[in-house]
Amino acid sequence: GGRWSAVVPWVRDGKGAFRQLFVGGGRRTRARSPDEGWHRIAGTLPGPRDAQGKEIARDRFRFRPGDIPRSPRLEDGCVVLYHSWETSIHPIAALDEAAGIVRFAAPLKEWWTIAYWEKEQRYLVENLPEVLDAPGEWYLDRETGVLSYIPLAGERPGETEAVAPVLDELVRIAGRPDEGRLVERVVLR
User: Fold this and answer.
1) Who contacts 11 (Cβ-Cβ below 8 Å, separation ≥6)?
2) For 161-182, what is the mean pLDDT?
3) Which of 54, 76, 80, 105 has the fewest Cβ atoms within 10 angstroms?
4) Residue 41: which region, alpha, beta or left (left: phi > 0; alpha: psi -120 to 50)?
5) Closest by CA position to 44, among listed 26, 62, 27
């Protein structure tokens, strides 16, 4: 069907997953909807009070029909929320299509709430098999460990290298300021 797939044993065995993939030396796009631009939330829902006294849920919002597809692999998917100067990634816990509500596996940890920066906050849906539809996109099934990829023009199996990050961190620099042991004069090249 024009897709490549491979089993990633350490993902299948439950030893982790990854959110980035590099193919042929270039970063590729995780399967996403929409392919260009973003969706806008349809509304907020009541929840605990934030620092400004607003009652807005920190773990769910209303979405427009068709923006988040039904999927048997919903637990693989996530919502990427765009905030004023950053993004946050939220695994999906549940989807109520009839009510148009998506619920995250955990609430936002930031001090602001959903729709704090803009009323119809921007968001994407990532890593669902139903949104894998464009060349250069990939999807990782965390249960089976199957990585699916739609190749770009000119990429050929057996000639194209794909690299997924394994490390959570590459370098950790930590002092003990309470003991007066500071980290100083560090240069990374």
Assistant:
1) 17, 18, 140, 142, 145, 147
2) 90
3) 105
4) beta
5) 62
